[in-house]
TrEMBL record:
Belongs to the inositol phosphokinase (IPK) family. It comes from Cherax quadricarinatus. It is an enzyme of class 2 (transferase). GO terms for biological process: inositol phosphate biosynthetic process. GO terms for cellular component: cytoplasm; nucleus. Residues 40-65 are annotated as: Disordered. Residues 40-51 have a biased composition (Polar residues). This is Kinase. It catalyses: 1D-myo-inositol 1,4,5-trisphosphate + 2 ATP = 1D-myo-inositol 1,3,4,5,6-pentakisphosphate + 2 ADP + 2 H(+); 1D-myo-inositol 1,3,4,6-tetrakisphosphate + ATP = 1D-myo-inositol 1,3,4,5,6-pentakisphosphate + ADP + H(+). GO terms for molecular function: ATP binding; inositol tetrakisphosphate kinase activity; inositol-1,4,5-trisphosphate 3-kinase activity. Its EC number is 2.7.-.-.
Length: 342
C-alpha cells in the first residue's frame, strides 16, 4: 500500500497554531489525525445518566455535570455506526461517511487516524468554509475554556470562521484563503464579508448556491430541535462546492454523495415542485433527485456536513442551545436573499 499524501483541500484542523496533517490515501479516503482520550472526564461518572426533571434546581446554564458520550471521536463514529436510535440514524446522514481507523507510520512510530469520505471528491476548484459552532467551547475537564473567548465573533454570532478558501468561478484564481490564526481576529463584519465572498455574488448561480446551503442547514437545524441526547462542543459545519461548476443556465442541484438532500433548482422549487423544507426525522434518507434530472443542464454540487465530534456530551434531556444559537444565525445569513420558508 502506498503512503498517503497531504490533503490539499484542508482549510481547518489547527491546534495551538500548527495545522494538523490531514492525509488522503490512494483510494481517495481522508485520514484525519485522532486525538485519543480527548475527554478527560470520560468514565469518571455514570456514562449514561438519566435526564434531570424539568423542575430540578440543578437545571442551570452550566455543563459541569454533563458526561462525555465517548472518550474520543473514533468512539463516537463507531457508536453512530451501530446505533439504531432514530436520532443517531438521522445524524449519520448529516456527517461524513466513516470507514474506520488506521495507523499511519511516522518517524517516531505510528499515529491513529480516522478514515472518512472525501467531501471534495471530484471537485476541480473546491471552495470550502469551516465554521466552528457555539458561543462556548467548554467541556468538562477543560475549565479554562469556560469563560475564554477564542474567536472574536463566537459570543455574538455563536459561530466563527476557522478556515476559508474561495476560487473565482470565472478565472479559477484563488480569491481568498483565511487560516485559523487570521480567523481569530475577524470582526463580525469581516466574517460576513468572508461569507459573502464564499457566495460568489457575481455568479448567476449565487442564489442557487445559497438555496442549497440553507436547505441543508435547515435539515441540521431540524435534527437539533428534535434531539435531546447530545450537546456538541467544539463541533463545526463544513460547506463545500466546486467553483468550476458555477455557470449559467438551468442547473441541477445535488449533494456530493446523494445524501442527505438533493434538489433541482427551479425558482426555489424542489424536485416535487414544492419549496424545499427539512424532512421529518426518520430513519429513511431524505429524498434524492431523479437521475434523469441530473442529465439536464449543468450540475452544481453543494455539500453541507457536521464535522468534529471529539467532545460530545450527554445533554441530560435538554436542547443544545449553544449550537442552535449559532446555527440559527448562520441560517439567517445565507437565507437573507433566498428566503426559504419553513
Amino acid at each position: 500500500m502506498s503512503d498517503p499524501t497531504p490533503y490539499r483541500h484542508q482549510v481547518g484542523g489547527w491546534h495551538k497554531g500548527i495545522q494538523s496533517c490531514v492525509l488522503k490515501d490512494k483510494e481517495g479516503l481522508i485520514l484525519k489525525p485522532l486525538k485519543l482520550n480527548a475527554n478527560p472526564t470520560y468514565g469518571q461518572k455514570d456514562s449514561n445518566p438519566m435526564p434531570r426533571s424539568s423542575t430540578s434546581d440543578s437545571r442551570k446554564d452550566s455543563d459541569e455535570e454533563l458526561n462525555p458520550v465517548c472518550k474520543d471521536e473514533l468512539e463516537f463514529y463507531q457508536h453512530l455506526q451501530t446505533s439504531s436510535s432514530q436520532e443517531d440514524v438521522m445524524l449519520k446522514s448529516l456527517v461524513p461517511r466513516f470507514f474506520g481507523s488506521r495507523e499511519v507510520v511516522v518517524e517516531d512510530g505510528t499515529v491513529p487516524h480516522l478514515v472518512l469520505g472525501d467531501l471534495a471528491a471530484g471537485f476541480q476548484l473546491p471552495c470550502v468554509v469551516d465554521i466552528k459552532m457555539g458561543r462556548t467551547f467548554y467541556y468538562p475537564g477543560k475549565e479554562q475554556y469556560k469563560n475564554k473567548v477564542k474567536y472574536a465573533t463566537q459570543r455574538e454570532l455563536g459561530f466563527c470562521l476557522t478556515g476559508l478558501r474561495v476560487f473565482h468561478h470565472k478565472n479559477g484564481h484563488l480569491i481568498t484563503e483565511l487560516r485559523p490564526d487570521a480567523c481569530k481576529r475577524l470582526t463580525v463584519t469581516q466574517v460576513f464579508e468572508g461569507l459573502e465572498m464564499f457566495c460568489q455574488s457575481d455568479s448567476s448561480s449565487s442564489i442557487d448556491l445559497q438555496k442549497a446551503v440553507v436547505t441543508q442547514l435547515l435539515c441540521i437545524h431540524d435534527w437539533f430541535l428534535k434531539q435531546r441526547t447530545y450537546k456538541i462542543r467544539c463541533g463545526s459545519i463544513l460547506i463545500l462546492y466546486d467553483a468550476n461548476q458555477l455557470g449559467n443556465g438551468q442547473q441541477t442541484l445535488q449533494t456530493a454523495t446523494g445524501d442527505p438532500l438533493t434538489a433541482v433548482v427551479n425558482g426555489g422549487l424542489g424536485v416535487c415542485g414544492c419549496t424545499p423544507k427539512p424532512q421529518p426525522m426518520t430513519g429513511d434518507p431524505l429524498p434524492a433527485a431523479n437521475s434523469d434530472l441530473e442529465m439536464c443542464g449543468h450540475t452544481l454540487t453543494v455539500t453541507v456536513k457536521m464535522i468534529d465530534f471529539a467532545h460530545v456530551l450527554y445533554s441530560d434531556g435538554e436542547r443544545d442551545e449553544n449550537y442552535i444559537f449559532g446555527l440559527e444565525n448562520l441560517i439567517k445569513f445565507f437565507n437573507k436573499r433566498v428566503n426559504i420558508k419553513r
